[in-house]
């Protein structure tokens, strides 16, 4: 259930690794396209990875829905790749049929995305944030830098790291079954320094696209909640990723340093208030939470629909503006009651609305205020609005 980024940074057994002469430094300007070395490393690693009988790479030719999703992801990485520090790397996505919240990149631009990650993401922005992070690893040439570090490790250190990872449950067991080629790459993948670099690179790239950089924070915050519910064995000095909560806070600070606005609710493709016609009412919902139910009849259907649309627009605008739970109030109004926030009327409770709920107008407004409380509670525990 954990999200790991594995860049396979070696495709030859450790003892056969050549002493590459052109390993880049952290601050050196990288070439715009993948080097021959990176392309070959990625090709060999891809072959090895897909040999694993437990890995099911989905064939887009067999399922239109898979093809549509892969096409969408390919377009996303194309957009994100072009604004990265290495715009000429040719990125493509392969989809893995697995519930893990996982993705990783190879140094040739091949990105593997697990379906569990797609299901976990709340919006296109969050998917883009993960893809931008993976592209960030290639933008910072972490494969070649990691390979240089790998050559310095002793077999004793490698064995110790394997033992630590092997204690980590399903993911650890899966790693233990991989060939020596992949094992070396995973053991010497990124480390905390590389993960932080990739996060910063992702924020810089997202800021140049229509995708919201705040999505890195919302994704990491929910991932942190997931990790707390499914804790791993503590790997101590063998931990290669900063805790997701720490990464979320670091990303928020970086967004501020970049002069960008942190607005986690304003995400493309995210959960917005929607209107549903159901029998004798229009229902205004955000996610799975019903906020209002407006009574209708055939003679005033257009007018009630307009009320519902106005209320939904007010909900979306207030949420994007960072509305807090305590700011929503139910109060009496001429001819009934209403919900207000920040001096703005969200929705007026008509006599027909109150009758539909079998409540007084003020009690109906109070009920709708309670619905808002449920909305904020769901956001607090997981962000799944």
Concise description?
With 385 residues, the chain is α+β, with helices and mostly antiparallel strands. The chain is built from 14 helices and 9 strands.
Describe this structure in words.
With 385 residues, the protein is of the alpha+beta class. The chain is built from 14 helices and nine strands. It has helices at residues 36-51, 64-82, 115-120, 124-139, 142-150, 155-166, 170-176, 180-187, 191-206, 214-229, 244-257, 301-320, 351-357, 361-382; strands at 92-96, 103-105, 110-114, 273-278, 281-286, 289-295, 328-333, 336-341, 344-349. A three-stranded mixed β-sheet has the order 1-3-2. Strands 4-5-6 form a three-stranded antiparallel β-sheet. Strands 7-8-9 form a three-stranded antiparallel β-sheet. Helix 4 (124-139) crosses helix 9 (191-206), helix 6 (155-166) packs antiparallel against helix 7 and helix 13 (351-357) packs across helix 14 (361-382). The chain is elongated. The two termini are 21 Å apart. The model is unreliable at 1-22, 154-190 and 233-240 (pLDDT under 50).
């Amino acid at each position: 259930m954990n999200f790991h980024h594995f860049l396979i940074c070696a495709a030859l057994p450790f003892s056969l690794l050549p002493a590459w002469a052109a390993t880049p430094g952290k601050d050196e300007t990288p070439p715009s396209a993948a080097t021959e070395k990176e392309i070959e490393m990625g090709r060999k690693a891809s072959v090895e990875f897909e040999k694993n009988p437990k890995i099911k790479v989905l064939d887009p030719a067999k399922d239109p829905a898979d093809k549509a999703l892969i096409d969408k992801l390919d377009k996303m990485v194309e957009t994100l790749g072009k604004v990265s520090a290495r715009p000429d790397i040719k990125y493509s996505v392969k989809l893995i049929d697995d519930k893990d919240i996982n993705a990783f990149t190879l140094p040739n631009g091949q990105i593997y995305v697990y379906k569990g990650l797609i299901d976990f993401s709340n919006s296109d922005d969050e998917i883009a944030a993960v893809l931008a992070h993976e592209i960030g690893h290639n933008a910072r040439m972490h494969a070649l830098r990691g390979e240089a570090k790998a050559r310095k490790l002793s077999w004793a250190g490698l064995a110790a790291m394997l033992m630590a990872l092997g204690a980590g449950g399903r993911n650890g067991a899966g790693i233990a079954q991989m060939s020596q080629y992949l094992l070396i790459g995973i053991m010497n993948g990124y480390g905390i320094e590389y993960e932080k670099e990739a996060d910063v690179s992702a924020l810089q790239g997202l800021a140049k696209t229509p995708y919201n950089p705040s999505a890195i924070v919302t994704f990491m915050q929910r991932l942190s909640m997931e990790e707390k519910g499914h804790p791993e064995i503590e790997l101590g000095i063998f931990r290669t990723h900063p805790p997701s909560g720490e990464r979320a806070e670091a990303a928020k600070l970086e967004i501020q340093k970049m002069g960008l606005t942190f607005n986690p609710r304003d995400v493309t493709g995210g959960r917005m208030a929607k209107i549903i016609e159901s029998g004798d009412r229009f229902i205004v919902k955000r996610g799975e939470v019903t906020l209002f139910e407006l009574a209708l009849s055939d003679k005033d259907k257009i007018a009630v629909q307009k009320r519902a649309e106005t209320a939904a627009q007010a909900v979306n605008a207030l949420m994007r503006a960072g509305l807090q739970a305590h700011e929503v109030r139910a109060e009496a109004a001429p001819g009934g009651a209403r919900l207000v926030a920040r001096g703005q009327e969200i929705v007026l409770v008509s006599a027909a609305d109150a009758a539909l709920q079998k409540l007084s107008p003020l009690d109906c407004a109070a009920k709708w205020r309670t619905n808002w409380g449920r909305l904020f509670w769901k956001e607090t525990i997981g962000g799944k609005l």
